[in-house]
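Hi R.,

Quick one: here's the Probable tRNA sulfurtransferase sequence you asked about.
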Amino acid sequence: MQEMILLKVGELALKGLNRSTFEAVLLKNIRRRLKPLGEFAIQNAQSTIYVTPKSEDVDLNEAVERLSQVFGVAALSKARVTEKRMDAILKEAPLYLEDPLLAARTFKVEAKRADKAFPLKSPEICSEVGGCLLEAFPHLKVDVHHPDVTVMVEIRDFGAYIHAGSLPGAGGMPVGTAGRAALLISGGIDSPVAGYMLAKRGVELTAVHFASPPYTSERAQMKVVELLRQVACYAGRIKLLVVPFTEIQENLREHCPQDLFTILMRRFMMRIAQELALENQCQALITGESVGQVASQTMAAIACTDAIAQMPVFRPVIGMDKDEIVTIARKIGTFEISIQPYEDCCTVFTPKHPKTRPSLEEVVKAEGAFEWENMVQRAVAGAQAQMLHAD
Ligand SMILES: Nc1ncnc2c1ncn2[C@@H]1O[C@H](COP(=O)(O)OP(=O)(O)OP(=O)(O)O)[C@@H](O)[C@H]1O
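And here's the predicted structure, written out as tokens:
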């Protein structure tokens, strides 16, 4: 009898008429994520997706790991499928569940009967399977409140499924169902988390990174590539645009008041990112800003940055504490990459005492000190694209 994976869909099960469109995107994302592992049969029925490897040598644990990162999946279980007959279920359950049940002291059985034609009702299934498992593993005791193992028997369209409980899925909505946005990504902790959070709501990401060689190194750029590959485990393929930013930064340093350097630099980032966003069919920008974290993230500074934006700017970590952001960064595997000590263009030329309450008037006046329109166009035209994915 075969081992496979059952996936329960989350929020998209609540969708009405367009639900099939959401499901089609989810199935495409699942196929894409599993492709490097081998061939799978994938079926979809009754808010459940059935993933069955077509050959014995597929690494099912790796498949579970990958599927736990696909947005739109609420829960997943590795399961053994048998024929929809009680004798088959009673034969398979003790064999398949031997490892978890030998390690447990208590258990309970739950049954779901999605196929109402099955002759036994759920409580009868539970009592027969429970009795059979107690006989096979006499050390076990039943505990219906806090069992070490919950044995599930699900009678569904394509067979009977036996498993030892579910793992949480990534939740959210399938990536590709909520449009596209441009993520301004630095090498820091916050912006990869910001990208992850919008991808979780179904938004496809295009990433924009500003690099200022020779002040920033090739290695700093590689760090951003590494971060995005990790985010791509959840967000799917990400197009990265690396923007040459040296000319603008050098001119800012030369012509503008030192204490406004950071806020002016942010406004140029917005101008350029916005043009690239439009060229790449993005409807919004995403940043990793969080109020009060640094001088450029005061409300006054954010107001000056936003004055440039002609599209929505999403800041999903805006109200989060650093340790809350770090918890997510650790969970999604970006934290260890982010803390590698490579410079970012934000940290070169940074003034010692940046103004925390710049006024829009003084910022606009400071920008008048040099001719920057062509520089912005050169930066946009000089953006280098590469496509990144998890593997
Ligand atoms: N080199 C860069 N390229 C693209 N976007 C950037 C770059 N540097 C900063 N940003 C954007 O500006 C935001 C604020 O950057 P800042 O350096 O002030 O904060 P941070 O706390 O270091 O953020 P992060 O941890 O994301 O780097 C970042 O979250 C990111 O969205």
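Residues 180-388 form a domain with the Rossmann fold fold (CATH 3.40.50.620).

Cheers,
M.
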